[in-house]
Amino acid sequence: MSSSLKRGVEKVEVTLKWDPSPLGRPPHDLDIVAATYTSDAPSDRPTYLVHFDSRSPDGTIILERESRTGQGFGSDEVMTLELDRLGSDYVRVVVGVVIQQREGRRTFADISRPAVQVLEGLVELTASDFADVSGATAATIAEFTRDESGTWDFRPVLRGFDDADPQEFTEQMGSV
Ligand SMILES: [Ca+2]
C-alpha cells in the first residue's frame, strides 16, 4: 500500500472501569491521564496534562466522565482524544492510568477488576486488565506519535510504575 494512502489515527476514546472497594473500606479512585509533548520539549516535561483536575487548553482532549469510587454501570472514566485537531506543535501523546494513593499504597492487585480499553470508533486498539502490571501503582497504556506527514501512529505501551504517586507518574510517563 502506498504510504500516501495511509490513514492515521484520528479520534480515539479511552474507557476505564473498576469495581468499588468493599463496603466500609476507603474508596478506590483510578484516573485516566493524558500527557502531551511538543517536538522541542523533553520527554519528562509534558506541555500539558489532561485528567480530572486539568483540561486541555484547546478542547481536543476531554475527560468526558470521571469517577472517584468506581460505582455505577458501564465505564467509570471516559476520555476522548481528537488527535487530528491537535495543534501541529504537538507530536506525541501518552495515555496512562494512575491509582490515587490517599489511603496508603494501592496497586492494581488491590483493585477489583480494573479494565482499560482504547478504541477508535468500534475498533479496539488495545485493552488491558492490568494483570501484567499488578504490582504497579500506575501504568502507561498507549502512545500516539505524529510523523513528518502529520499522520498519527498508535503504539500500545503497557508499562507499570511501581511507586509512582499521581504527580510522579505524570513526570515519568513520557519515558516510555
Ligand atoms: Ca478518578
From TrEMBL:
UniProt-listed InterPro entries: Stress/Tellurium_Resist, TerD
Protein family: Belongs to the CAPAB/TerDEXZ family.
Protein name from the UniProt record: TerD family protein
Record domain TerD: where: 6-163
Protein source organism: Streptomyces niveus (Streptomyces spheroides)
Domain of life: Bacteria
Transmembrane domains' residue ranges: none
